[in-house]
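Researcher: Sequence of Transcription termination/antitermination protein NusA follows. Predict its structure.
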Amino acid sequence: MDAKVLIESFAEFARSKNVDRPTMIRILEDVFRAMIRKKYETDENFDVIINADKGDLEIVRIREIVDDNSEDIWDHDKISLTEARKIEPDFEIGEETYERIELEDFGRRAVMMARQTLIQRIKDLEKDLLFQQYEELVGEIVTAEVYQILGRETLLMDAEGNELIMPKSEQIPKDRFRKGDTVRAIVHKVEMINGNPRIILSRTSPIFLERLFENEVPEVYDGLITIKKIVREPGERAKVAVESYDDRIDPVGACVGMKGSRIHAVVRELQNENIDVINYTDNLDLYVSRALSPAKVSSIQANEIEKRISVFLKPDQVSLAIGKGGFNIRLASRLVGYEIDVFRELSDYEEEEDVDLTEFSDEIEEWVINELKKTGLDTAKSVLALTKEDLLRRTELEEETIDEIFKILKQEFEQ
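Model: Prediction complete. Tokens:
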């Protein structure tokens, strides 16, 4: 393979990979200089001139002419007068020789190795460029097509045929993909593993929800409305705290849109995830009340040292505050940054007649009492006010345990 064929084939391959000309020339020069170093031990006194467009290559060895008896005769950049005059008969001591080295002089094996090295360098460059391209897109929405569904992850292809990965943990539980589906997600992270870029997508990240709001709500995109914080239970529920620095703009109304037109598009993308949009405020009590929406809070006691908040509600508001599966109270806690404890507000009569669950610690195991308290049930009557089905749904207790709890509590009031 001569230089022209080698360079032209490499240039064509490089162009197909969208490699710019300066980079292509630099790679060619690096590889040829590596060949020179392998044969001559150094490339310091060599010039490498490449014209990739024409496929031209010129390698020139430059050496200074010294006397045949000179001590420097063995230096890499020196040549004896006798050897120099074999190149040009009229050379004199002190002049420089410019000797052209042909590619064939390196041997067929070296040339084939150079060809493989050039291809590998382009592939490595392509991986680096892909890594850099997606590293700049971290946190941004991309669209890709599903091409393979595996047990623990789904493989997708972008428009340029690059492989993207969405692990099961980054998929909304209700997501059901089929080959050929077009999927939107954010670039969650990009990592280089054994020289290969691994691009991870996510649909469960709060940032994905934030980007969807930017797409659907112009005021958010323009910065007129700021999203202060987002917390999610993907596919189930999310809470979004928003704030506007312009008093003329209602941030919640703008995000929801006329008859919910804006937020519906976001909800559909997130597999009908229930989204609560609330006004952000520095007033902690008011912020907690809004975070527990749709429940109406009667009173709040905050312990800023322990980062805990006790919330008191009327009996009919407790289940609303906790929400289906406990999602509402968990998300509210994460949104405000405090652990929220829900307590049922009792009337004077109930307080006189009711009994705190801790009074039954000799008959009911402590972990069972704690499980009931997690759902806002802290007295005997608050438990008895519910059905067995309610407790099964709201707690992780077994049916036999609940039957025993009812039996013990009823005995107290029968006495």
